[in-house]
Amino acid sequence: MAIILSIFNNKGGVGKTTYMYHIGHILAENGKKTLLVDCDSQCNLTAYCIGDDDILASWDDEGNSIYQVIDPIYQGIGDFHKRIPMEIANNLFLVPGDLRLSIFEDRLGDTWNSAKGGSVPDLRSQIAIYRYIQWCVAELSVDVVMIDLGPNLGSLNRSILGGTDYFITPLSADLFSIQGTQNLGNKLIHWAEEWNQIKSSYKGSELSLPSGKPKYLGYVIQQHNVRNNSSGMTKGWKIFGDRIDSAVRTNLVTPLEALGQVVLREDYNLGKIPNLHSLIPYSLEARKPVFKCTSVDGLNGEHITKARESRSLFDQIITIIDSL
Questions:
Q1: How far apart are CA 48 and CA 168, in angstroms?
Q2: Which residues of the chain have pLDDT under 50?
Q3: 233 CB contacts (<8 Å, ≥6 apart)?
Q4: pLDDT score for 224
Q5: Bridge partners of 93?
Q6: Cα gap 204→206, rounded to integer Å
Q7: Which of the listed residues 155, 184, 199, 284 has the most CB atoms within 10 Å of its CB?
């Protein structure tokens, strides 16, 4: 059975897309058939994975972007299109993002209350993306699904997280990421209550409802500047870096543990991904993970060594995903 893992934070600019992109490639290299789903209407993951021509093709009427897949449901004329995701590497597939997904989010907001009341057509809208992902899992024999979510607490993320098994929060060592954990924790508690209401209201048998209870795996600290000291951070970054764990435990782990929505562990820090600076533009241009970039892609000297060594930054989360 596949696991569905969302990368999510209500604060933007924390490197979640880059993080997910690299994890997906490593899982695929390790023999795990992996599906990346771009549910962020900014489409950064899609632009990282494929070129403009392929993006435009996925947005076409016969395309396989996430919006084109659920367009019949949005229009109220049918069920989702059964369209195969793009294969972007061996064992690695992509459901491309689409700017128009924000239109579908409006529908999700408008139909949430009626779905809670048991309306089947509106409930089908709420779980449309979940049901499509389940179809992809069965069609492609997927092992791991990774979903890139936009940096907000809107109705689209509420719907998708309801069908997620686990989620990770990438965080920057700054005030805004720390404060964001409180907003996120409160919202997740509220969403869990509402998903329970949906499951209680639905009396039919045709729809397989998601759990509505994604489990928290932990956080990864991203984008910090590296120094050779015990923390691995500059003094400035360490000020907020030292506050992250306490905030996560208070605002996420403790309240979600009461709901059974935490994978219990001693350490919720899943790793530190430093600021890779100019290596990221080379990676974006080549559409390769940083650790696969070489002199062919414009790197030279120490950059080549640093790029190659960056693969080890993701070892901890790969081990945890394997254990699931």
A1: 20
A2: 224-229, 231, 233
A3: 173, 224, 225, 226, 227, 241
A4: 41
A5: 35, 87
A6: 6
A7: 184
Q: How far apart are CA 104 and CA 69, in angstroms?
A: 11
Q: How far, CA to CA in Å, does 99 sit from each of 23, 56, 68, 129?
A: 24, 11, 11, 15
Instruction: State how far the alpha carbon of 23 is from the alpha carbons of 47, 178, 311, in Å.
Output: 17, 24, 9
Q: Distance between alpha carbon 173 and the CA centroid of its chain, in Å?
A: 20
Neighbours of 246 (CB within 10 A): 11
The closest alpha carbon to 49, from 8, 85, 14, 81, belongs to 85
Angle at 131 between CA 188 and CA 81, to 5 degrees: 135
> What six digits make up the tokens of 69?
């897949």
Give the pLDDT confidence score for residue 173 in this predicted structure: 73
